[in-house]
Design brief:
By secondary structure, the protein is α/β, with parallel strands linked by helices. The chain is 44% helix and 21% strand. Helix 4 packs parallel to helix 5. It is globular, with a radius of gyration of 13 Å. The chain starts with a strand and ends in a 7-residue tail after the last helix.
């Protein structure tokens, strides 16, 4: 079972969790949001989950994989930090991703055993 952390509390995160649950491969362990109130509200249906409003503390926690569902403009810095923290990263981006996202892919290639 992979220990999952989510960055972002939008509706897409609930959809991702529904799909992840069907695989029986992920266990939601932590949620990062800019406010603990939003994180708390988001996690109500999921039972006891660690809540963070500090991204570095979130990434330092015992997680295997991070799903990034924040605004697109935050994908690059958050994915970079997650990979540098030795976490697998799942994120959606458009086919025409930015140059910054290409650099994140390069970071992922330099981290043996990690996936972007």
């Amino acid at each position: 079972m992979l220990k999952l952390g989510i960055i972002g509390t939008s509706a897409i995160s609930h959809s991702f969790l529904a799909a992840a649950k069907e695989t029986d491969q992920y266990e939601l362990r932590a949620v990062y949001s800019r406010t603990l109130e939003k994180a708390r509200s988001f996690t109500q249906p999921y039972g006891q989950v660690a809540l963070y409003d500090d991204l570095i503390a979130f990434l330092d926690s015992d997680l295997d994989v991070i799903y990034i569902a924040s605004p697109n403009s935050l994908h690059y810095p958050q994915a970079k930090l997650a990979l540098l923290a030795k976490k697998h990263v799942i994120l959606e981006t458009s086919r025409h991703y930015s140059q910054g996202m290409g650099r994140v892919g390069q970071i992922g290639q330099g981290a043996p055993g990690l996936s972007l």
